[in-house]
Amino acid sequence: MERRDFFKKVIITPLLTPLFLAAKKRKSGCELYLIDDNPEEFFPLILEELHNYIANYRHSFAFLNSHPHENDLRRILSQRGLTYVQTPIQADLTLSFSALHEKTLPSFTLIREGRIWDIRSRELYSLWREMNKNQRRSSCLTIASFKSRQSHPFSGKYVSVYKEGSKIEMISLEENVTKSYRTRGGKITLRVKDGKAWVPESSCRHKICLHSPSVSFAGERIICVPNHFLLEIKGSRYIDTSIG
Amino acid sequence: MIHPLARKLCILLLASLILLPGCGVKERWHTSTLLAFDTICEINIFCSPSTFKSAQEEVQRVFSEIESLFSPGADDYSSPLVLDLFQRALKVYQDSNGCFDITVAPLSRIWGFFSKSYVVPAPEQIKSVLKLIGMEKIEERNATLILMPGAGLDWGAIAKGFGIDLASKSLVQMGISSGFINAGGDLYCWGNNPNNQSWNIGLKHPRESGFLGVLSISDLGAATTGDYQRYFVKNGIRYHHVFDPRTGYPAQGKQSVTVYGPETLICDALSTALFVSQQPEKILEKYPDYGAIIVDHDGNLSFLGKTYPFNPIE
């Protein structure tokens, strides 16, 4: 299939239109829709690829109802660092399964904050091609709902990492990671946790970056001049400057 | 009949008049920082590169002049700018029943805030210094301010706002339609932000890292006075730099006061006055174009006077 079909198929799945409309109206949260009879096969891979878009993707999960391959799915997700919990209310990710009235080709769609996200990427395209390799039609719909953290309109979504003036990486603020970067001035470490980013270690002389408070709102920055390193929080609404 | 050459020339002239204003003067956002008033000052303006250079120089010139006239120890009491700011300060002093007072310099000195050798003075020492406090004790004679021996002026709660007002006025006169000048927390913003909306100003939390909320304003100044900006702790008690001129001790009851309104110098002075006063609403009644966000001793938020969109952070 053509790459442009990928977009069409992934985005437009007429069978799911009522569900999409309902999800779009909610304006918050994040839901991944997957049509595939074997969710244990591709769901963990899609999840891994979408980590930049999805909140809490590596935390706890629960099932709202059962699926014939539920045990396999549980095992694979646990292997990928997610924790299974029995009570859905405690879970960051809940999975529910339902049967479509008619069979269709496998596909997947992400709805976040009330809109369909364009999640095309080389990896997801390859996955989608793989899913459709045998033209195997499926009737199982998996809905993965990610618990939304009530956030402030100015809360950032990502941290953009710049080295030598060029953007080298974007990390979701929902992640829990520590990363070190080799720089012209030595080494600098970035920590992201609980929606905040800060510098816990730096080889620079005056350690101004190290003593900068953590940043979490769109527009906030941490700059390390000796390391030619900049972190900037990105989001939908920006704080232009601060006082106090 | 018009000669064809003359007609061609007319067309060329007309075309050049239409095209010239857009040639090579692309306006864009420019940001720069400079050190003044012992802090980092941020300028963010929308203009052409050449205007930006002039704007930077102008802000630097204004800030240097203000610093030289109003820094601790400056004693030029006859400059027109000093006399002008004295009158503005006197008005806020009167309107606030002395809660804002530029004669607190001897208090700052005995508490060690000038030398940064902090000390809690003896009650008798504070009592004797209080005799020097009060703006009515300053005389203006032959266009010069006359101070009592031992008295001194602390312009710290008004001069930065004054400098920002002068600098931003100059930039507006230079034709800069949008921007802000933020001198370590005192700010004036005008026009729209790069997203063509009001400026979103984060208000720092007085106790935690991060923000108290986001204030959306335009064509206004804003300034904050807080007990966290300059302080020392002795025997578990926090002594900060905002003195109640009537007692000689740091003012009690609030963590921070942010004031916003048309002039940054008034915001600057009022934030101190409201911080010190037990009845801040009475003072603000005299300034109907101004509003305030107050964080009390227990961290509770309240709003006084004129309000603008504010998104508090949970």
Note down, in words, how this protein is organized:
The complex is a heterodimer of chains A (244) and B (314). Chain A has 244 residues and is α+β, with helices and mostly antiparallel strands. Chain A has six helices and 15 strands. In chain A, the strands form three sheets. A seven-stranded mixed beta sheet of chain A has the order 3-2-4-7-1-5-6, with helices on both faces. The radius of gyration of chain A is 20 Å and the shape is elongated. The mean pLDDT of chain A is 82. With 314 residues, chain B is an alpha+beta fold. Helices cover 32% and strands 27% of the residues of chain B. Chain B has helices spanning 4-19, 49-70, 80-95, 105-110, 123-130, 159-173, 264-276, 280-284, and strands at 28-36, 39-47, 139-141, 144-146, 179-183, 186-190, 199-204, 211-217, 220-226, 231-234, 237-240, 254-261, 291-296, 301-305, 310-312. In chain B, the strands form four sheets. In chain B, strands 1-2-5-6-9-12-13-14 form an eight-stranded antiparallel beta sheet. In chain B, strands 7-8-15 form a three-stranded antiparallel beta sheet, with no helix packed on it. In chain B, strands 3-4 form a two-stranded antiparallel sheet. In chain B, β5 and β6 (186-190) form a beta hairpin.
